[in-house]
Amino acid sequence: MILMQGKGVSKGVVKGPLYFFRRQDTTVVKTTVNDQSAEQARLQQAQERAVAQLEALAERCREEAGDESAVLFETHAMFVEDEDFVECIQSTMEEEGCNAEYAVQTAGEQFAAMFAAMDDAYMQARAADIRDVSRRILNNLMGVVEGGIDSDEPVIVAADDLAPSETIQLDKSKILGFVTQGGSGNSHTAILARTMGIPAVCGLGDALKEDYAGRLAYVDGETGSVVLEPDELTLATMREKYARQQEMNALYQTMKGQEDVTLDGKKVNVYCNIGSPEDVAAVLSNDGQGIGLFRSEFLYLAADDYPSEDTQFEAYKSVAAAMDGKRVIIRTLDIGADKQVAYFDMKKEENPALGVRAIRICLNRPEVFRAQLRALYRASAYGKIAIMFPMITSVWEVRECKRACQKVMAELEKEGIPFNKDTEIGVMIETPASVFVAEELAKEVDFFSVGTNDLTQYTLACDRQANDLGKFFDPHHPAVLRALKMAADAAHKAGIWIGICGELGADVSMLPTFLAIGIDELSVSPSAVLPLRAALRKSIAKTCTLEMLEC
Questions:
Q1: CB under 8 Å, gap of 24 or more: what pairs does 541-547 form?
Q2: Fewer Cβ in 10 A, N or C end of the chain?
Q3: Structural domains in the chain plus CATH codes
Q4: CA–CA separation, 475 and 160 (whole Å)
């Protein structure tokens, strides 16, 4: 038996083959090709595969979110076969005697630059589409695996760790669980696992060896153990846990359709955290009553260039429409710190968690902020969208954001584009500064949402990404809970509601404290909705106390 011990970051028991994630070099190098007819055949094959991939994506979108959401992929499929684009690629290959990869990249850059230089905003937005189409053809030419997992069967993904830009592109249908050498409970691998409701273990270190690739593994996301070739006792324990897990899941299914309310009538909205439109399916299947956090930065992490206003609009619109009138809170761009995007060309910072990130980027780059706000307000005509600003520390920042919103609304009204003038605006409470000025902030917005991961980090001066800090990163610390109480009191004094969208919100053991503090909404991973609802419906709010706030 081989036993590896790490930290469980997403509960559950699963077994499956280990698949080691491999990063592929997509750097394009120009080479001389003598047999151009064979190279042209390679190009045609890559284009045909791209069209097939895009048609499959369009069909999946049509099934999950309707015809309108499929239009983007159908448009991309047309770009692949565009006569001028194809002719540009082929002529470059013939004239320069070069490889298809170089010709595709060159043509893509030329066409993207051409669209970007046009006066019409719609045509400018097509530059990003051309780049995306070029990247897809290049990936096919270079053998890059679509979805990052080259396997016909579902697997347990193993890696040193996964960056946000890598997790967002994985084919979720092929993932049984995650195991990583590094990472922490707040890593994006862990967040993705909790969203998907699958087991995950991080911090396995050198014990997780690539030599184990393909071997059957048993993963326990609660205890943090990963076992290969288990002995009879361990196997029996795993099977018993799995059976108990299935029984609990069946019990939680009875919570569907039930109200999120305590025994004594205290209503608490149980919403979901998502990172992409594809996650809405998990929200609906787990009976989430809204979306309390849509991490919009994943649209940027999954792209090779700034996503256009139209691209963002389609994403936000599809989520709003799918939620059918339920509240969808979309957090504006939260790039920076542990979420880096190459095309943002950010300067290297000694301490990025305290640097230019989130709302600071938006206020420093108004053209990027404007494109996102326009997309958000346009999408507000198709559902109950709310806009939330992250990393707020001062009242002036909120007022600047509101001015940007007013400007965008004036533009849309002038252009005759429909939007909801009463779109709710909220801020994230995730710094001590925002807690200390919460009374002033509450007068400016419609709601608060507490990001407990960052609030813990900044309150305790403890890096949320450092796995070796262990017990020092304690979201149950009285200082963190007192900050939460201060923010809740300020919100209710101003007549606005307050929620939690950090990972702490799913901690059932904390529910009595949240009820005592007066939290109005809890936004959690979709898989945590039904267990949380079950606990809520057994609780009595008036008996809950604030004893955890004491040292």
A1: 541/262, 541/264, 541/265, 541/266, 541/515, 541/516, 542/264, 542/266, 544/512, 544/513, 544/515, 544/516, 545/512, 545/516, 546/485, 546/513, 546/516, 546/517
A2: C
A3: 2-21+150-252 (3.50.30.10), 36-142 (1.10.274.10), 254-549 (3.20.20.60)
A4: 26
Spatial CA neighbour of 270 closest among 302, 304, 295, 293: 293
Q: 224 vs 3, 4, 180, 204, CA distance in Å?
A: 10, 8, 11, 9
Catalytic-labelled residue, pool 61, 405, 501, 544: 501
Instruction: Express each pLDDT in 63-117 by its tens digit.
Output: 755 666 677 788 888 989 999 999 999 999 999 999 999 999 999 999 988 988 8
The count of other CB atoms within 10 Å of the CB of residue 17 is: 17
Helices (H) and strands (E) in the chain, counts: 20, 16
| Encoded tokens for 356 | 């230019």
Structure tokens at 273: 């955290």
**pTM (two decimals):** 0.76
Lowest mean pLDDT among 123-127, 479-483, 513-517: 123-127
Known catalytic membership, residue 477: no
Question: What is the SS3 assignment for 10?
Answer: strand
- Which positions ≥6 away from 328 have C-beta within 8 Å? 290, 291, 294, 316, 319, 320, 383, 384, 385, 386
Q: Taking the CB of residue 314, how many other CB atoms lie within 10 A of it?
A: 23
pLDDT digits (tens, 9 = 90+) for 359-414: 999 999 999 999 999 999 999 999 999 999 999 999 999 999 999 999 999 999 99
The yes-or-no answer on residue 462 being catalytic is no
Instruction: State the catalytic residue, choosing from 61, 76, 88, 188.
Output: 188
Instruction: Kindly state the greatest CA–CA separation across the chain.
Output: 81
Q: Report d(CA 181, CA 208) in Å as an integer.
A: 6
Residue 41: CB atoms within 10 Å: 12
Both structure tokens of 89 = 């690629």
**DSSP secondary structure letter of residue 78:** H
